[in-house]
Design goal:
- This protein is an alpha/beta fold.
- It has two domains: 4-32 and 39-323, 3-Layer(aba) Sandwich (UDP-N-acetylmuramoyl-L-alanine:D-glutamate ligase), CATH 3.40.1190; 326-485, HUPs (Rossmann fold, 3-Layer(aba) Sandwich).
- The chain is built from 18 helices and 19 strands.
- It has helices at residues 4-11, 56-65, 80-91, 135-145, 167-179, 206-213, 220-234, 273-286, 291-306, 316-323, 326-334, 343-351, 368-379, 391-398, 407-415, 432-438, 457-462, 478-485; strands spanning 15-20, 22-35, 42-55, 69-77, 95-102, 109-115, 120-127, 154-158, 183-187, 201-202, 238-242, 248-252, 257-260, 335-336, 356-361, 383-389, 422-426, 442-446, 466-470.
- It has a nine-stranded mixed sheet, sandwiched between helices.
- α4 packs parallel to α5 (167-179), α8 packs antiparallel against α9 (291-306) and α11 crosses α15 (407-415).
- Keywords: ATP-binding, Carbohydrate metabolism, Kinase, Multifunctional enzyme, Nucleotide-binding, Nucleotidyltransferase, Transferase.
- Residues 358-490 are annotated as: Cytidylyltransferase.
- It comes from Bradyrhizobium macuxiense.
- Catalyzes the ADP transfer from ATP to D-glycero-beta-D-manno-heptose 1-phosphate, yielding ADP-D-glycero-beta-D-manno-heptose.
- Residues 1-329 are annotated as: Ribokinase.
């Protein structure tokens, strides 16, 4: 395990010069329950909307959110979207923006309409002119970039093929950076990797890499073989292929491959995941991390991003929760004793508009049936609270000789599971008081219950929540396990 805390501390002192295509990202969220009478198209009842800095600007936001400093050079039009982007960037701490105005093009703007119930994009509307900057604007970009190289620890080129990173801008930037001994990370869009010649690292996704190298890229060996020719063509040290849920594969020009698997996460939106990886890599490499440590940081950051909606940022504490061993933090971060205060956890989750789920049980000896229910419960929500019967409560319900393990031991085992976000111990025979406090959006129990038998179903449904019953795994029961262990019935 690399020293995460030391690397996180080192990151906070790094400056990234980010050059690329700036966009205004807008997300319109709502519910879809009917088809328009005017045309065969769904009608979205808008509930809320968000406006974010997108494209290469999102990479700049990630740099700043992780504690680094970003000097950002981009292009906007002389329009309302450009003015809005300039204003928003000006309010972002940690970002110094240098924006070139092009009166001949609109500011790139993308509006996504999202069904909140299904967590799917229904439609995207784009305003853009995806052509290379004209010679005059191209020179203004170069004149804005070159003086900033001395101040930067590393350079990140974020190419969305909207016109900023022309061949001439790329060539001038990389050549000048190499003369100063600065590493250059490229998130490429062009399938001709030769235009990025001299960069330190190219970071295509699997589809881009396969098309650029005309290879299948379906295994580490295939990626390594195709990458060697690509790296010679681009005169780069390394090539990183991102593969979504299959992780990342790094090929090194001097030989060898490093593969880092993706962290398990409930994917809500992949927007901005590539920017997150590129920005985190740039900061980590600037902080002198080795390749594997930089990849693990980037993988964890990507897991945070795709678990949110929209072009989301990543904060150090979110990264910490993803990287540090979960079990060692469980007792400190996840367990609330009987009568303890869970309000702070709930308030933060509600502030983030997260969907809170709840399930409960004695969990005396954790078995696969429990794990199935807990995993399924976590799949219905963003944060799962598990109500755990206290020792006295278990004894009243199960009789003398139970529980086999005390409440603290049972809580620690539950808290070690990634599916569980909070364990709340309660003294009563039922969790009704805890459910009243939590007010979950979803209440989950095993399929051996009916909806009417689930304690708290009236409370949850009255506030607009739902009850979910999960099929139980046959042949698994704590009581039978205890009996067998004690030499009783089988």
């Amino acid at each position: 395990m690399f020293d995460f805390e030391a690397l996180l501390h080192a990151i906070s002192g790094q400056t990234v010069l980010c050059v690329g295509d700036l966009m205004l990202d807008e997300f319109v969220y709502g519910d879809v329950s009917r088809i328009s009478p005017e045309a065969p198209a769904p009608v979205i009842a808008v509930r809320r909307s968000e406006t974010n800095i997108g494209g290469a600007g999102n990479a700049a936001r990630i740099v700043a959110s992780l504690g680094g400093r970003c000097i950002f050079v981009g292009l906007i039009g002389e329009d309302d979207a450009g003015a809005k982007l300039q204003a928003v960037l000006g309010r972002e701490g940690g970002i110094e923006s240098i924006l070139v105005r092009d009166p001949g093009r609109p500011t790139t703007r993308k509006v996504r309409f999202v069904s909140e119930h299904f967590s799917t994009h229904m439609l995207r509307a784009d305003w853009e002119q995806a052509v290379p900057a004209v010679a005059e604007i191209e020179q203004k970009l170069i004149d804005a970039i070159l003086p900033q190289l001395e101040r930067a620890d590393i350079v990140l080129l974020s190419d969305y093929a909207k016109g900023v990173l022309t061949a001439r801008v790329i060539r001038n930037t990389i050549d000048a950076a190499r003369k100063l001994g600065k590493s250059v990370i490229v998130d490429p869009k062009s399938l001709n990797f030769a235009i990025y010649r001299g960069a330190t690292l190219l970071k295509p996704n699997r589809k881009e890499f396969a098309e650029a190298t005309r290879s299948r890229a379906d295994s580490d060996n295939a990626i390594e073989a195709a990458a060697q020719d690509a790296m010679r063509l681009a005169d780069c040290e390394a090539l990183l292929v991102t593969q979504g849920e299959h992780g990342m594969t790094l090929a090194l020009r001097d030989g060898g491959v490093v593969h880092v698997p993706a962290l398990p996460v409930k994917v809500r939106d992949v927007s901005g995941a590539g920017d997150t990886v590129a920005a985190t890599l740039a900061l980590s490499l600037a902080a002198k991390a080795d390749w594997e440590a930089a990849l693990r940081m980037a993988t964890a950051a990507a897991a945070v991003t795709v678990g949110k909606t929209g072009t989301a940022i990543v904060k150090p504490d979110e990264l910490r929760r993803r990287i540090l061993p979960h079990a060692s933090l469980a007792a400190e971060d996840k367990i609330v004793a009987a009568g303890g205060d869970i309000d702070a956890h709930l308030a933060e989750w509600r502030r983030q508009d997260l969907r809170i789920g709840f399930t409960n049980g004695c969990f005396d000896i954790l078995h696969p049936g429990h794990v199935k229910v807990l995993t399924a419960a976590r799949g219905t929500c963003d944060r799962l609270v598990v109500g755990l019967n206290s020792d006295a409560s278990v004894k009243r319900l199960k009789g003398e000789g139970r529980p086999v393990q005390d409440a603290q031991a049972r809580a620690e085992v539950l808290a070690a599971l990634e599916a569980v976000d909070l364990v709340a111990i309660f003294e009563e025979d039922t969790p009704i008081n805890l459910i009243t406090k939590v007010r979950p959006s979803v209440l989950v129990k095993g399929g051996d219950y009916t909806r009417e038998q689930v304690v708290g179903h009236e409370i949850v449904e009255a506030s607009g929540g739902e009850v979910v019953l999960v099929d139980i795994l046959p042949g698994h029961s704590t009581t039978s396990l205890v009996d067998r262990a004690r030499g009783g019935k089988t």
